[in-house]
Amino acid sequence: MKRQWNWRLWLGFLLVFAGAAGYMAIFVWHPITRDFPWVSLLMFAGGIILLVIGLQHAFREPQLYRGKIFGPILALLSVGVIGMFSNGLFYKGHQMPPSKSAPQVAQKAPDFTLPDQDGKLVSLSQLVSGPKAKGAVLIFYRGYW
Questions:
Q1: Residues 6+ apart with CB under 8 A from 136
Q2: What does the alpha-carbon distance between residue 100 and residue 8 come to, in Å, rounded to a whole number?
């Protein structure tokens, strides 16, 4: 009996690899897939499912399916790709260098003047003192631009 090609192993590995490479090449350019890599994670899940099914076929029915050697190798490579992707995106991507000039918590903010929604110049001191003092909420966002 001729053994069949175990396509699930190879398709699972290619799906995992495409999930990681696709994020860097395509998904990073669109905010819906860049902010949280849900497409890549779905591709990883589908690839892992195909790899598990392929490994089951290879080890339960070795007389019918190929893959007892390449199956574990492709599975380990896939786990490595997913691990490096997750480490780079979820851990290393959030390790921002410290800012020496950023205000600290509970530190008094320096006075500044900026235009409001109508284009009038408003200073911080006007917002927190005076007859119509309303207060101010300052939100600082540090990005990589």
A1: 124, 127, 128
A2: 52
Q: How far is CA 62 from the centre of its chain?
A: 38
In this structure, the dihedral spanned by the alpha carbons of residues 31, 35, 39 and 43, taken in order and rounded to 10 degrees, is 140
Residue 8 · residue 15 · CB < 8 Å: no
Match 């200073």 to its residue by tokens: 123
Confidence check: pLDDT of 46 > 80: yes
Identify the residue whose tokens are 């669109």.
30
- Tell me what pLDDT residue 66 has: 80
Q: Which residue in 44, 49, 42, 50 sits closest to 9, CA to CA?
A: 50
Total-model pTM: 0.66
pLDDT digits (tens, 9 = 90+) for 55-84: 998 888 888 888 888 889 999 999 999 999
